[in-house]
Amino acid sequence: MMDLNVDEAEHSMEMHLPYLAKVFNGYAVKVVPIMVGAVSTENEAMYGRLLAKYIDDPTNFFSVSSDFCHWGSRFNYMHYDKKHGPIYKSIEALDKTGMETIETGDPDEFKQYLLETDNTICGRHPISVFLHMSKNCSTKIKIKFIRYEQSSQCKSTRDSSVSYASAVAKLDH
């Protein structure tokens, strides 16, 4: 259940629909939105098992949305590993480690990454559900990140940034 303030702040469908309209332009499609809130690890696994069979149907398309690191005092997250150089390079290293972890397809490794880094990946729960789906389906899926961007290059603790990453999941032959 969501109260009105949470519902009005929720924006994941607003992010998905223009993308889906562009991808499926000219095709009749049904959109089945599934909102995944802050569910427990056990529920991520349960939903992943329940939804896994839908990956096996080649007529289904999944779009899982999340931005990555929200860095800066306004986000209450300022992880900085100086060995990577400027702050924005540290953020990139943090996110790329997360991306590599997601590419393994292992939801437990992703959960461990989140526990170790506290990275502020908003869609960590839907990503975890999808990893459990791909782990429990009959189809072998390969996840590959194809693009990474930051809203700004943080150089001081007064700066802030949000990271964005795009991946595709396809059949692993």
From TrEMBL:
Pfam families: Memo. Gene3D superfamilies: LigB-like (3.40.830.10). Transmembrane segments: none annotated. It comes from the Eukaryota. Belongs to the MEMO1 family. InterPro entries: MEMO1_fam (IPR002737). This is Protein MEMO1.
